[in-house]
C-alpha cells in the first residue's frame, strides 16, 4: 500500500547508503509537509529484526508556530498493524512524544513532553531481542526496555499534516536516518565500548605499575 510514495523517494535519489549491517538515507523537508494519508515512506528491502538501532537527526527548519510538527512511524511489514511513532514539534514548544500501536493494547502514548527534544544530538530508537524498546530524546532515555513481543522494522513513514492541520510544517533542511541491525554481539557497536574499557583498563594498570616502580 506504500509503494507509490516509496517509488517517489527512490526516483529522487535521497542519498541512500547500504552495507551488510547498516542502512542510511536522508529525506528532504517536504516529507514533513506530507499528509497522514499520503506519507513519504522508505521501505527496507528486508525487515530489520530482531535487534536494531535507529538514529534520527532532525535538521528541519520549521514554519513558525507551535503546531508545526513531523511524525515518524517505524512500521512492521503488512499485514501487521504494529508501529512505533515519534513526534517532533517545532516552534517554542519543541514537543516530543513516543507512542506505540500493538494488537494487544492498541495505540498508547508512552511519553509526551514540551521542550522534549533537541536538534543538537540525534534521537535514537533501539529494539533488542531481550531488552525491548528504548528511545532517547537527544538528551536522555525517555522510554526504557518496553516489551513489544518483538519488532521487525519494515518501513519508515514520515508526514506532518493530519485532520487538524493542512499547512506546511517545514520550509528547509532535511531529516536523516541510520539503522544498524543484526547481532549486537558481532557489531562494531559492541566492540567500541569494549575497546574503550580495555584502553581505560590498560591505562590504569600502566599507571599503577609506573607508580609502584617509581623510586621514593
Which helices and strands appear, and what pairs or packs with what?
Layout: H1 3-11, E1 17-18, E2 22-28, E3 40-48, E4 52-58, E5 61-62, E6 69-75, E7 83-89, E8 96-102, E9 106-113, E10 123-128, E11 132-136, E12 141-146, E13 153-159, E14 170-172, E15 174-181, H2 188-213
Describe this structure in words.
With 216 residues, the chain is an alpha+beta fold. Helices cover 16% and strands 42% of the residues. The strands form 3 sheets. The protein has a 7-stranded antiparallel sheet, with no helix packed on it. Strand 7 (83-89) and strand 8 (96-102) form a beta hairpin. The longest helix has 26 residues, at 188-213. The radius of gyration is 20 Å and the shape is globular. 31% of the residues are buried.
Percent of residues in helices comes to 10-25%
Report the β-strand fraction as a percent range.
Answer: 35-45%
Order of adjacent strands in the largest pleated sheet: 1-2-15-4-10-11-12
Shape: globular
List the quaternary state of the chains.
single chain
**Residue runs with pLDDT of under 50 for 5 or more positions:** 1-12, 187-216
- Output the number of helix runs: 2
User: What would the average pLDDT be, to the nearest integer?
Assistant: 83
Number of strands: 15
Main sheet attributes: strand count, strand direction, barrel closure: 7 strands, antiparallel
Instruction: Kindly provide the radius of gyration, computed on alpha-carbon positions and rounded to a whole number of angstroms.
Output: 20 Å
- Termini separation comes to 77 Å
Give, in order, the helices and strands: HEEEEEEEEEEEEEEEH
**Structural class by sheet pairing and helices:** alpha+beta
Amino acid at each position: 500500500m506504500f509503494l507509490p510514495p516509496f517509488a517517489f523517494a527512490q526516483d529522487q535519489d535521497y542519498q541512500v547508503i547500504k552495507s551488510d549491517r547498516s542502512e542510511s538515507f536522508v529525506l528532504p523537508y517536504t516529507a514533513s509537509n506530507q499528509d497522514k494519508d499520503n506519507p513519504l515512506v522508505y521501505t527496507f528491502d528486508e525487515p530489520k529484526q530482531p535487534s536494531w538501532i535507529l538514529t534520527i537527526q532532525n535538521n528541519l527548519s520549521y514554519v513558525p508556530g507551535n503546531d508545526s510538527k513531523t511524525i515518524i512511524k517505524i512500521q512492521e511489514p503488512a499485514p501487521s498493524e504494529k508501529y512505533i511513532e515519534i513526534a517532533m514539534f517545532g516552534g517554542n514548544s519543541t514537543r516530543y512524544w513516543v507512542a506505540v500501536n500493538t494488537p494487544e493494547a492498541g495505540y498508547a502514548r508512552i511519553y509526551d513532553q514540551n521542550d522534549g527534544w533537541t536538534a543538537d544530538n540525534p534521537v535514537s530508537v533501539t529494539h533488542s531481542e531481550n531488552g525491548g524498546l528504548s528511545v532517547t530524546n537527544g538528551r536522555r532515555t525517555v522510554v526504557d526496555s518496553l516489551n513489544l513481543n518483538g519488532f521487525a522494522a519494515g518501513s519508515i513513514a514520515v508526514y506532518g499534516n493530519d485532520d487538524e492541520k493542512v499547512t506546511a510544517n517545514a520550509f528547509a533542511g532535511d531529516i536523516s536516518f541510520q539503522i544498524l541491525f543484526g547481532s549486537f554481539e558481532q557489531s562494531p557497536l559492541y566492540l567500541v565500548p569494549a575497546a574503550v574499557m580495555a584502553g581505560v583498563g590498560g591505562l590504569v594498570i600502566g599507571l599503577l605499575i609506573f607508580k609502584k616502580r617509581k623510586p621514593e
